[in-house]
């Protein structure tokens, strides 16, 4: 019989397993092969041992989940991307270039790109790591504000940052991790949540970004509003990114969103949601082969509860009531 703990499908990213082991050598080999890292310490040799790692990419963000039941020290070298560490249980410490940052339920930290560091995790440690490509973050920031981000990309790296100041990115990260515990496929709602996570990370961490968003945006022409409306109508059934919208409209997302709401009396994302609800209603009436939940996901809703509430607000009835009246196409 295996000494592995029972597989817990509720663990973050459980459908995207990299490693589950009770063997220290197996962990060391995986760390070397998958992460270019070295296991330098893993508790007493005669003590019980368990480690797990899950990993998935969604919406341009790579999510990692790691669990160590015994204390470990791991040396990482030249790690790509910017990484934010979100501790779930126990505590840890990151050491790099003479600097240290504590990680626990109240403190997160951000690692700079191409960094080398020593990670020391206590017994029972679990975390979620969100990994972002710096150039992708820069492109997203430029698409939102509408002009190039010159100079260094300043982030508060290798500091103990209060988790209370990173609420939005934590909430999205945890929601994604829960959904990806059971979802193996990466569908439209998950991709859009990954995109939202990148935007939240910028808002919370990029120096000066929130101030630039607070500035009065330049007002684009009505023609840009029509382009945005047509773009949403043509692309409601695929993940929409701020970069694609900015490219299609030729102006910043911030300015065209503000002009759209001023002209149409409705926010662009609300308009998109209503288009998706209209499509869901059509499918509920005419598509008898797919479940209500499947139709909700197809139309871009990651939470069935959220879908049902919004559907009732728009149509005055629950999706199941519409389905009951449905007929084959």
Topology, element by element:
Elements: E1 17-21, H1 24-35, E2 37-41, E3 51-58, E4 61-68, E5 72-79, E6 82-89, E7 92-96, E8 99-103, E9 107-111, E10 115-121, E11 125-132, H2 134-145, E12 161-162, H3 167-179, H4 188-205, H5 209-214, H6 222-235, H7 242-249, H8 253-264, H9 268-286, H10 292-298, H11 304-315, H12 319-324
Antiparallel strand pairs: 1-3, 2-5, 3-4, 4-11, 5-10, 6-9, 6-11, 7-8, 7-10, 9-12
Helix pairs in contact: 2-7, 3-4, 6-8, 6-9
In the predicted model, the low-confidence regions spanning at least 5 consecutive residues are 1-7
CATH class of the domain at 17-177: Mainly Beta
Provide the succession of SSEs.
EHEEEEEEEEEEHEHHHHHHHHHH
CATH architecture classification name of the domain at 17-177: Sandwich
From the helix content, strand content and strand pairing, which structural class follows?
A: alpha+beta
CATH topology of the domain at 17-177: Jelly Rolls
* N- to C-terminal distance: 52 Å
Shape label: globular
Strand content: 15-25%
Evaluate the radius of gyration. 22 Å
What's the pLDDT, averaged over the residues? 91
Query: Using DSSP, what is the number of strands?
Result: 12
Could you name the CATH homologous superfamily of the domain at 17-177?
A: Jelly Rolls
């Amino acid at each position: 019989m295996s000494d592995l703990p029972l597989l817990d499908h509720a663990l973050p990213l459980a459908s995207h397993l990299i490693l589950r082991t009770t063997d220290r050598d197996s962990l060391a080999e995986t760390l070397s092969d998958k992460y270019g890292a070295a296991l330098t310490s893993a508790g007493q040799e005669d003590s019980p041992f368990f480690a797990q790692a899950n990993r998935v990419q969604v919406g341009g963000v790579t999510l990692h989940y790691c669990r160590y039941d015994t204390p470990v020290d791991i040396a990482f070298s030249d790690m790509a991307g910017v990484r934010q560490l979100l501790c779930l249980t126990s505590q840890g410490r990151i050491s790099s270039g003479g600097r240290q940052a504590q990680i626990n339920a109240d403190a997160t930290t951000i690692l700079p790109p191409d960094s080398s560091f020593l990670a020391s995790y206590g017994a029972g440690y679990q975390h979620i790591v969100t990994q972002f490509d710096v150039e992708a973050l820069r492109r997203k920031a430029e698409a939102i504000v509408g002009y190039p981000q010159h100079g260094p990309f300043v982030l508060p790296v290798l500091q103990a940052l209060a988790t209370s100041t990173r609420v939005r990115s934590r909430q999205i990260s945890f929601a994604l991790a829960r959904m990806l515990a059971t979802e193996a496929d990466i569908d439209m709602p998950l991709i859009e949540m990954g995109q939202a996570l990148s935007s939240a990370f910028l808002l919370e961490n990029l120096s000066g970004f929130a101030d630039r968003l607070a500035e009065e945006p330049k007002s684009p022409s009505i023609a840009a509003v029509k382009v945005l409306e047509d773009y949403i109508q043509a692309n409601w059934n695929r993940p929409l990114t701020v970069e694609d919208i900015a490219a299609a409209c030729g102006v910043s997302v911030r300015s065209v969103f503000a002009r759209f709401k001023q002209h149409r009396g409705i926010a662009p994302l609300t308009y998109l949601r209503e288009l998706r609800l209209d499509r869901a209603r059509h499918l509920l009436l005419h598509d008898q082969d797919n479940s209500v939940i499947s139709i909700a996901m197809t139309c871009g809703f990651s939470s069935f509860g959220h879908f049902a509430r919004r559907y009732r607000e728009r149509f005055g009835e629950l999706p199941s009531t519409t389905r009951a009246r449905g007929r084959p196409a």
